[in-house]
Amino acid sequence: MDNTFWALVGLVLFFVVVFYVKAPTKVGKNLDDRADRIRKEIEEARELKEEAKQQLAEYQRRRREAEQEAKDIIAAAKREAEAMLKEARQRNEDYVERRTAMAEAKIAQAESDAIAEVRASAINIAVEASAKIIADRNSGGSSGQFIDTSIAEVRKRLN
């Protein structure tokens, strides 16, 4: 009975106690429970991964839609700006045409007025010159009244 024998007895007692307490089944059960928890966590991780993929796809779709909408808005704004610019140019051209026509009409009216004024002035000068010439020739009595009447009638008809 030496130390080796007692070590063997202690080892055998240890194994008997371990089997009496059902340690291998408890260890196996704990390992099985842990394996089940790990499987569940892996499955949850897969589900979360799938959900994340779906959310990513949804966000990418929304981003593409937002980009397309932004492009559409920009294109609409460009079309509207071009239309406004075209309308403004047309209004400007119309305004210039109206102002040009008004200026031309004023010029034509001024020209007509100048021609009429020159004619009236020429007629007045001609009538006065004729009156002076006739008066100088007929420096007599009653013919002066007849001449004045004739000159007034000529003026009336020429103007």
From TrEMBL:
Give GO MF terms, alphabetically: proton-transporting ATP synthase activity, rotational mechanism; proton-transporting ATPase activity, rotational mechanism
Which keywords annotate this record?
ATP synthesis, Cell membrane, CF(0), Coiled coil, Hydrogen ion transport, Ion transport, Membrane, Transmembrane, Transmembrane helix, Transport
Per UniProt, subcellular location reads as:
Cell inner membrane; Cell membrane
Gene Ontology, cellular component aspect: plasma membrane; proton-transporting ATP synthase complex
Main localization is: membrane
Residue stretches in coiled coil: 28-105
**Transmembrane segments in this chain: where?**
6-23
Q: Which CDD domains match?
A: ATP-synt_Fo_b (cd06503)
Give one Pfam family, short name only.
ATP-synt_B
Topology in the lipid bilayer? Single-pass membrane protein
Q: Does the keyword Membrane apply?
A: yes
InterPro entries noted in UniProt: ATP_synth_b/b'su_bac/chlpt, ATP_synthase_B_chain
Functional description taken from the UniProt entry: Component of the F(0) channel, it forms part of the peripheral stalk, linking F(1) to F(0). The b'-subunit is a diverged and duplicated form of b found in plants and photosynthetic bacteria.
Description of how the protein assembles with itself and partners: F-type ATPases have 2 components, F(1) - the catalytic core - and F(0) - the membrane proton channel. F(1) has five subunits: alpha(3), beta(3), gamma(1), delta(1), epsilon(1). F(0) has three main subunits: a(1), b(2) and c(10-14). The alpha and beta chains form an alternating ring which encloses part of the gamma chain. F(1) is attached to F(0) by a central stalk formed by the gamma and epsilon chains, while a peripheral stalk is formed by the delta and b chains.
Family that this chain belongs to: Belongs to the ATPase B chain family.
Do you know which NCBIfam families this protein is assigned to?
PRK09173.1
- Official protein name in the record: ATP synthase subunit b
Q: Which organism is it from?
A: Jiella endophytica
